[in-house]
From TrEMBL:
InterPro entries: DUF2470, Haem_oxidase_HugZ-like_sf, Pyridox_Oxase_N, Split_barrel_FMN-bd. Residues 14-112 form the Pyridoxamine 5'-phosphate oxidase N-terminal domain. It comes from the Bacteria. This is Pyridoxamine 5'-phosphate oxidase family protein. GO terms for cellular component: cytoplasm. Residues 167-227 form the DUF2470 domain.
């Protein structure tokens, strides 16, 4: 969002969720007191947070008693000294254990080498069902957003959702050069080992070990073919800027 564009709380909230890989999880302890811990995260395609939690962790024991929780996510922006400089969103809802291979795959892709612990015995994946949220994105840019409004509805895009893994793995395995060009030429990012960490109807998420960026599609893609067409077009556009 540029300085001159109107504040869009839904798009801003979604951008914060996509930009983070860790957050502060608040669960309820045995006495009903809030208990905050640091967790790593990814998301499902429709932006529900995915966590990998140990059975031995206090927050996991708390969730087994009471699934209600909140998750604070802070976008990059406070690294220069002001911890309140980054936009942040608090997600409120319930967290449940899932046996979802796609959610686990997305977690591993987004966390990279840090996801290795999730493969150890006693770790399982959990998904947050968001019912409400509170966004703070600068002075005067504060909003309460219901979960049904914050999380996108991609029910019309089954072909792309079913084919997301194929698209992402094909691009990462065979077209790493194109992904780097997306980052450098189209998004003005520094060079690096960029990879795609997600593909949804509205665009792709890309990342290195330290950086994350988002490249939106011109219009919504509902099929693998439409998404592939956009990716080819992006590569052509980026290569034209090299000349």
């Amino acid at each position: 969002m540029s300085e001159n564009s109107p504040f869009d709380p839904v798009e801003t909230g979604r951008a914060v969720i996509r930009s983070t890989i860790a957050g502060s999880l608040a669960t309820l302890d045995e006495a009903g007191n809030p208990f905050a811990t640091l967790v790593t995260m990814a998301t499902t395609v429709d932006l529900r947070p995915v966590l990998s939690l140990s059975d031995l962790a206090v927050h996991t024991q708390n969730l087994k008693r009471d699934p209600r929780a909140s998750l604070l996510l802070v976008a990059p922006g406070g690294e220069t000294g002001n911890p309140l400089a980054g936009a942040r969103i608090t997600l409120v809802g319930t967290i449940e254990r899932v046996d979802d291979e796609h959610a686990a795959w997305r977690y591993g892709l987004r966390q990279g080498k840090a996801a290795r612990a999730s493969a150890l015995p006693g770790f399982h994946h959990y998904v947050m069902n968001v019912t409400n949220s509170h966004l703070v994105a600068g002075f005067g840019n504060i909003a309460q957003i219901a979960g049904k409004d914050l999380l996108p509805d991609y029910s019309d895009s089954k072909d792309l959702l079913d084919g997301e893994k194929m698209v992402v793995e094909h691009m990462n395995d065979d077209h790493a050069d194109a992904i780097a060009l997306y980052a450098i030429k189209l998004l003005n990012q520094p060079g690096g080992a960029w990879r795609i960490t997600g593909c949804d109807p509205e665009g792709i998420d890309i990342a290195t070990s330290t950086l994350r960026a988002r490249l939106p599609f011109p219009t919504r893609a509902t099929t693998v073919g439409e998404a592939g067409g956009y990716l080819k077009s992006f590569a052509k556009q980026a290569r034209s800027l090299e000349q």
